[in-house]
Specification:
Layout lengths: L3 H10 L3 H17 L7 E4 L7 E3 L13 E6 L12 H8 L3 H13 L9 H12 L6 H11 L15 H10 L4 E8 L4 H10 L6 E5 L5 E3 L17 E3 L9 H7 L5 E4 L10 H29 L3 H14 L10 H9 L8 H8 L3 E8 L8 E7 L2 E7 L6 H8 L7 E10 L3 H5 L7 E8 L2 E8 L1 H5 L6 E6 L24
Parallel strand pairs: 2-15, 3-4, 3-8, 4-5, 9-15
Antiparallel strand pairs: 1-10, 6-7, 8-12, 9-12, 10-11, 13-14
Length: about 500
Amino acid sequence: MINSDARRQLQDMGLDIKAIAEHQDHVLRQISSHSPRVFPIFDTCRLDNGGIRRLPETLVHSDVSLPVVAFVPAAGASSRYLAPLVPLMAALRASDAHQCADALDALTTDGYLNCPLPTSVLELVAYLENSRDVVPGDLASRVLAEIDAPKALYPAVLDGATFLSIKRMEHDALDNLAGEVYICPPGRVSEFLERAEASCSSRPVRCYEQGASLATTRFESDVRVALDSSGHVSMVPGGHGSLLRLLPRVAEDFKGARGVFIRNIDNVAGVSTAATEAANSFLRAFNWTLAQMDEIRRSIEVDDPVNAGVTAKRILDFWGITVISSEPVLTTLMIKLFHVNPGDVETRLFDLCRRPLVLMGQVPNTARDVGGTCVFTEIDGVRQKLCLEVPHATDADKKKFLEDPSKATHFNPVFVAAEIPSEASLKNWDNHPFWLVAKKSWQGRDTYYQESILYEMLGSSHYANVIFVEVPRLVFNPHKTLKDAGSKTLKTWT
């Protein structure tokens, strides 16, 4: 269904033709069915049913230190965050002094000038307070460039520290991180790296481009590849799920790295003792559990089921799970901690033990949160648990489960620690079901494209050995609008 000209362009751009064809099929199925893909909810994961575990009060310190690298998706645009500035940007582009003044008056009235803003915007405010002439071209250009910057490079506090610099500060306070990786937009690797290295952090840092190999394309309503007015294929990011392909690169760049620690760039936790200890405790639990899973894998390789069982029992004890003496311990580990039923086939049990380990930190729901949660579901006939995003729930399940804080007791996730998968494990995600079809207006018409959902992919017991873990609410401070920062300064987070 992809014609020869579009195919040639896609190849020249470095896009994966096979993946694009799969995305096209998904778009076709959704448009044809007039309904999105949904996963039924049988129950939510909670503390009272074992779907969520508490971190042990006394964490076991492992003699083995398995290096973990911070991995931060930071390529996202700031369009939603900066929506109030859109009229000002339009006025600047039109070189309309009156519109600029009106836009500035509206920002003042609505309180947005008390929020973190780029230096150039503050200069613009000062200029317009003293003159109603057309804004000088160099100032207008700087304002537009800074407002169009990725959110990671945007001020998060009034004194100018960016989301990127604050995230580096948070990582620097943690124990035993081997380094940091930031995913940045195409063409901005050098800028990101320069800004990251200018931050006060001792951690080695890398910046990876979210380029063509992680992208997809838009499709028309008839599912043809969408072309712009010049006949060129339009490339669009394929969602954070595509970032899984970068994980082997982390292991190459940071020798010996075994896992990644994922946090959103706009979730500001700061470096208070409580926030830092929450992250350290979470990572210690991941490190210790991964070391035990390594021991189980080694025991399986040398045909030592006794040691494998002893180690599995140690993990279950750590996570507060009682073992009935008549139950095979490895099977209990899979069923009661990872919520996967291995059946009676021993080889499947051993294969399950080799899957990547993932810990996902969930914060308690305040009863005001609206969003996804971790659930027990069924996907393609397989019962499993899943870090569910809202668009994948039916309207009935949203009402019955997600909107009821007594059932949706926790909120999707703040921390993720994931074992770096082997190439073989990575291939298991090739045809994953955790995608959404986005419908967006583009060049005056409706177009569609597929986005893969990272936290569903990592948070599925179909592909990984997942543990949902409660973490303190204080580590959840997302900045989704300008006013989320209010009058906060960097001192607020230190």
